[in-house]
Amino acid sequence: MKNKNSIILFIACSAVFLEALDLAIMNLALPLIQKHFHLKEEQSQWLQTIYVLLYGGFLIIGGKLADIWGRKKVFMSGALLFLITSIGAGKANSFEFLFFFRAIQGLGAALLMPSAMAIITNTFVTEAARSKALGIFSSFAAIGSGCGLSLGGIIASSLGWQWIFFINVPIISMSLILAFIILESDTQTTDTIPPDFLSGIILSFCIVLLSYFIHAIPTLIYKPIQVIVLLSLITLSLVYFIKRSRHHKNPLINFALLKGRNVQIGNKAIFLLGSFFLSYLLVLSFYLQEILGFSAAKAGLLLFPFSVGSALISRFLLPCLIKRFKIIRIARLGMSLMFFGALLLIVSMHYHLFVYLVFSIACVTGAGMAISIPSLTVMALNQIPVDHQGVASGVNTTSYFFGSGIGLSLISLIMQLNTIFPSTKKQLIASMTLLLLLAALAVLYLLKKDFAQDRETDRLRKV
């Protein structure tokens, strides 16, 4: 039984490893894809935007489907979809086909990840065993991200950008075979009232439209009718989603669970963190390769030690901090490091100081992310009842990926404005980094505001 549980854990961990690998590996390959298809920067980054938006948008639906259809069935469906789209993306001979397969790949990840998490929580029933398994699961995410940032550059430079997709094939094939043999078919639930899947689709549609609108602002300046139509569609779909969710008997998202102050602060902060981090990686990748002249392989090797450091901080330092300090203070520390890292990137670009660049990467991809994501997640989930933790966790993760999509869209907007108001590439990247600073400042404001309210509450209690 113990060996079987270890194999099941390996199957689930392979999914999160693959998801983290695939998200990180694209950042260093984007400049190569851009050159191959003769694209502009704002066009190539749509490969990341559409992936994170569809992944985040359908994540909660994926979790609900795992409960209804069974964890094994949904896991294998997601893995098979991920496998097919990886092959299709690697074989794509046009950007349109590559974009299509990348978008569907996001849907595969949305089925794969929540079912993998559900497999772990249902296999390891005792609290100690489950905590240990989830810790291993999280560490595989950090390892996958580190491998994506380092090996991705080497693979893309030596074998071609197509292999950042082909590398998924042996990993996901092995997971599929093991899942088919090892995982047992689980009991399907039979809710008398089916979940409101339509709301999830409407929300995803709304966010994708908003991202497109941000992308298209420079071309829409002289097209007021299109602007009115797009804004009307975005507003109406969002209003309809909220109204439908509040009145449906089995809503996809129960807004009553999200009324707690810390829950709202945590989810808003994780949204802004998502907009900050993936945008930072995109800026950093273009800076290293387009301005400093690094190859994708050299850029990846530069990032690798900090990704490993992030995994070590998550595993050893963070638990010690949680025991000694309030979670909000830990979150403030993490976001302060993110802000400082973005500031150092601007200084590095302006004064050509490589050591500042190294410290920037250390602050953001090393310590900042390792501290920020877990602490903000705990803030968002602490006040949620145990039987609703799954849905709340899905909302939290969805907030992160929606933020990532919006942040990447804003970066794309600045890239396009640069073509209208020409400037050097260094000024372009500096302007993008300023946008990242604003995101970091916004998160710090949220956390500072909450911290001040906590101090006021403590003062009133003493009175």
TrEMBL record:
UniProt xrefs under Gene3D superfamilies: MFS general substrate transporter like domains, Multidrug resistance protein D
One Pfam family this sequence matches: MFS_1
InterPro entries attached to this UniProt entry: MFS, MFS_dom, MFS_trans_sf, Sugar_transporter_CS
TM spans (from-to): 7-33, 45-62, 74-93, 99-121, 133-155, 161-183, 195-214, 220-242, 269-288, 300-318, 330-347, 353-379, 400-421, 427-447
CDD domains, per the entry: MFS_MMR_MDR_like
Domain of life: Bacteria
Membrane topology designation: Multi-pass membrane protein
Key words, A-Z: Membrane, Transmembrane, Transmembrane helix, Transport
UniProt-annotated location(s): Membrane
Domain Major facilitator superfamily (MFS) profile residue range list: 8-451
Protein name (record): MFS transporter
